[in-house]
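Entry 14. Structure prediction run on the chain below.
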Amino acid sequence: MSPDDAFRGMTPRSWADVDNESAELRPSAPTSLRRLSAPGAYRPRSVELLTTPCGRIVNPPDVAVGSHFLSSLHQQTRAMEDIMSSHPNVGVIDRMTQAIVENDRETLRHIFTDDMVFHGRGPIPFAGDHHGVDGLLAALGTVFELTDGDVKLEQLFCLADDEWGAEWEHAVFGRNGRTLEMNDSFVYRFDDGRIREMWFIAGGPAEAASFWA
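Output returned:
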């Protein structure tokens, strides 16, 4: 099942539910902060890219009762999570993010396959399907144009294996004196270490659409 199959049927109400529920899983404050330029021909004020260690999300509460089975399952899950969080494709995702905020098209052309497709889903100004590096940067560029570069991004976790990757990101946008917070999901499909397909699924509140209008 592709991310689009899971996304179908979601409503602005369900986006808000996802955003509210996800707040419980936010990790501690980021360990570093870098100010980076955003894509596009213009020069926005600033974009803040917050980086954190990969957060652990699997923590079954029943392990505390001393069940040998649950403890063993928990250890196996943590071991698999360690493998996925240290997979080389996690580094590919991190380099992609860095290249996007620096508008480094040459690096992006090595990271993406020639037929890469970027899917934007949810209450966002670039909803739809976009092809290639130019399509990706044009789509994301609309966000930086509408916000004049008032964007803060914080990676909450990132996992990957040979074929798939997933990333969860907390984003804060400022526009015309208003602020919008969103918890967004990214899903990546890899082909021999390069990203062939990428989904951006916005998890903003119900009023997110009016923020961009």
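The chain is about 35% helix and 30% strand.
Filed with the rest of this week's runs.
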